[in-house]
Amino acid sequence: YQLLMDAKDARKFNERSVVVEGKASKADDVSVIKVKKVKEIPLSDLDLPLPEYEAYQKAPSLVEEREGKLKVSNIRWKIEQDPSSKERKANHGWEIATINPDKVLNAYFVLKPFAPKFIAAHSLYVFTFADGGMVAEDGKEAHSLALSIEAHKKIGQSYGLIKTMKKSFNIVWLLTTWDNYANLNVNFNKSSDTELFIYPMKLTAEQTKALLVETVKQACVNRSGEFYHTIRNNCTNNLVVLLNRVVSQDKQIKLWRIPGVFYNLKTTMPLRLAKLLKKKGFISEPIKKVTRQEFYTDIEAQRSHK
Q: Structure pTM?
C-alpha cells in the first residue's frame, strides 16, 4: 500500500523508526492509507515479541489460485471436546483446502443475537457447496463455508462493544466450516446466546459465485495492524462492502450518509442491516433457526424440507 501524507512532514522522519497510523476508505480498498499520525519509537521497541492470539482465531492465507480454484490455508475445520477439560471446551483443527467456486450452491446471511438482543448481534456469510466444492488436502470435504469477521483477541483479552471503539483489537476475517461455527456458537457456548438465524440470499448464480470469490480473497488480505471498530470496520459493514462488489451500481448500499462525516448505521448494525437487505430484496425470510434443542448443520437439506 501507499501512504498519503505531505512530503515535507514525511522528511522529518527520514532514517527513523516510526509507528504510522492512518485510515483507508473501506476494507476492500487499502491500497492507499491516509496518514493521521506518525510517532517515532526507539529501535529497542522493534524487538518486542509479537502478541499471541486466541487459538480459535487464525487469519487465512491464499496459497494458490489456479484455473479459478482457490487454495487457502488456516480454514477452521474440525471441532471436538478438549479431553483435558472437565468443562465444555472446544478444540479446533485447521486445514488447507481447495475451494471451487463453480460448485457453490447458495449464499446465506446469518445472525447470531447476543445481549442486549434487541440491538446487538453478530452477522456473517455462509456458502453451501455441491460435492467437490471444498476439499482438504487429505481428501475430506465440507459442504459449507462461513466468513466471520471478528475482533482479534489477544490471549486474556475480553471483548466489549466500547473497547472496540478505542483501537483495542485488531481485526481477523475467519474462514470456517459451517459445522465448526455452528457447533462452537451453539453447543459449546457457555452463555444463553445460542440461536442462529439463517436468511437465504436472493442472488443470481453468477453473483453468488462472485461473492464467494470476493469473500475468500478479501479474507486472505494481510490485515495485521488493522483495527476492528464497532461502527466503521466490523462484522457487518464489511459484509456490505463485499455485497457491493458483486451487484450493479444502482443496487449498491451506501455506507455513509455524509461521506467521511456520518456513517449509515443501517449498514453497521446487524439487526438493522437484516431489515435493509430484506427491503432491498437481497434476502428472503429465514429458514428454521439453529438451536441446541433443534440443532442442524445441513442448511440445504433443511431449506428443501421447508
A: 0.92
